[in-house]
Amino acid sequence: MLSLNRFLLNVFQARRAPTLQRTFHFTTPATMPRTAATESFKFNHTMIRIKDPKLSLPFYMDTLGMDLVSEQNMGDFTLYFLAFDHDGIASLPAEQKAKARFNREGILELTHNHGTESDPNFQGYASGNAESGRGFGHIAITVNNIEEACARFESLGVPFKKRLTDGKMRHIAFILDPDGYWVEVVPQALSL
Fold it and tell me: 94 FRET partner, CA 20 to 30 A, in 23, 109, 141, 191?
């Protein structure tokens, strides 16, 4: 463990200014304090491309329960910003919702390039989980009761990549969205 710690420290320091040196401790999570320069930073959103919003929006909104925070037609593509509404954003007027999306965390941006939904030659987007294109892996949601959530997904005909009964990790599941992106389903109380 010490040699891994030293290796990571050397790699990390090689990419940083010398005045920003930091020691890594792997015994407790999140031990690095935020600095004045980063204390306001938030992880706002991640973006995935979709083929057809008529399939993807119902999946994320109806199947997963996300709310459409804002939609922006940019001419040749449209952006859809979705999130779980735990702070009342969905009840705001459209203009306020659009502004509020930059001041929160956990947004999923779906980008639809117009025409892909009707192009017979369109092969789809790389999910990041197949050879020749591995990279992005999945998004994840947490649920109160994973067995009930998976039974609901099953009853809705949602395709599974990994069921609770598959493999060694019997406390998580993976479902597939209409474009083949993996969505990990994790219980809200999980001990590893």
Answer: 141
Q: How far is CA 166 from CA 64, 131, 135, in A?
A: 22, 22, 23
Cα separation values, 7 from 13, 14, 15, 32, Å: 10, 11, 13, 18
Residues 6+ apart with CB under 8 A from 48: 108, 109, 110, 111, 125, 136, 139, 179, 181
- Return the bridge partners of 71, or none: 80
Between 132 and 62, the higher pLDDT residue = 62
For residue 184, give the nearest of 124, 130, 137 by alpha carbon. 137
Read off the pLDDT band of 107 (50, 70, 90): very high
* 164-182 pLDDT, tens digit each: 999 998 899 999 999 999 9
Instruction: Just list the catalytic residues.
Output: 184
Q: Please give the sequence-ordered ranges of beta strands (E in DSSP) within the chain, or none if there are none.
A: 45-50, 67-73, 77-83, 107-113, 138-143, 160-162, 173-176, 182-187
Residue (of 164, 171, 169) closest to 186 by Cα position: 171
